[in-house]
Amino acid sequence: MNFLRKQLDKAGENFKPGSKFEKFAPALNAFDTFLFVPNHTTKKGAHIRDAIDLKRTMITVVIALLPALIYGIYNAGAQHFGQTGEAFTFMDAFIHGSWKIVPMIAVSYIVGLSIEFAFAVYRGHEVNEGYLVTGLLIPMIMPVDIPLWMVAVSTAFAVVIGKEAFGGTGMNILNPALTARAFAFFAYPTYMSGNEVWVSEASASKVDAITGETILGSLASGNEVSYSFMDMFNGAIPGSIAETSTLWILVGAAILIFTGIGSWRIIVSGFVGAAVMGLIFNAFSVNALMAFDWSNHLVVGGLAFGVVFMATDPVSAAQTTKGKWIYGFLIGFFGIMIRVFNPAYPEGIMLAILLFNVFAPTIDHYVIQANIKRRKKRLAAVQA
Length: 384
Hints:
Its main location: membrane. It is found in: Cell membrane. The chain is mainly alpha-helical and 384 residues long. The chain folds into two domains: 2-35, no CATH class; 57-372. It is 63% helix and 0% strand. The protein has helices at residues 2-12, 25-35, 54-84, 90-123, 131-140, 148-160, 176-187, 189-192, 215-220, 229-234, 246-258, 264-282, 288-291, 294-297, 303-310, 321-341, 349-383.
């Protein structure tokens, strides 16, 4: 590491102010801070002395994502071999899943970071580490066989329109990863929905048994599902790459909550809101989706993944304590509502989160105003 440190310091001489490559200093600095702890601190004014910084925060989120990602890679292969009827081992499934998913991750990082570097050089500021998480989230919420060029275009849209247009990391009002998925869904609907996109190579297979239909898609069509609650909870079902296993998503949630990075209030209230809406629908049971048990609604589709990893985004979520409870509850509540009432799109958590990303500042505003009014009333009572 000392050798690498010396080489970076030597290269940095060519990027100092007034030097030949001064304009490209943010790019070199990005590599430096990714590999080493920054060697500078604030010089004046109040600041917080803490061991945590943006890089460590993002790395912790990446670690929290790994259990769901690793299982998602395995499940992608397992669903493929399982529906073709071929015998397979864990390594067979994992290798097949890796062959499909690792290139998607590579494309997401290459395209996204290239754009981030370009904007950093153009604006003359440092490259932020926020894309470490976004670059992993984007492929994790995509169908396994989506073409790589679509991943690239969706990533570029999310970074440019969903993030850099607002000023970069910390300034965006929408979750960038969900912005990428929303763009892909509306721009390439045949690759993001239907019964042939959720199982690897289902559309190219000559085996009639392969349909790759998700549980929610089957229920929306009025069909019964044969999966047990534990199948759905463990994630042995078709779906987006890393959204199927509620078990491993909750492991990631525990990491986020234990480290203080993810808001447990948003996570808990998100599941509560979904449960309440599910119970309301169970009381009527007009169709298969409404009759689907409320507990099952919590463990299928993207609900758990969205509530844990998307709704808790500290930039686009509500900031006040009470606002987080309201924000999370409404996401879960409306997520199930959209899921059931929209037969063309039997999954609503993406749209619910994006909707309340927009309303998060409004929620915080009214929470703060309510606090101000209560304090004014107490002050008036004391003065009286």
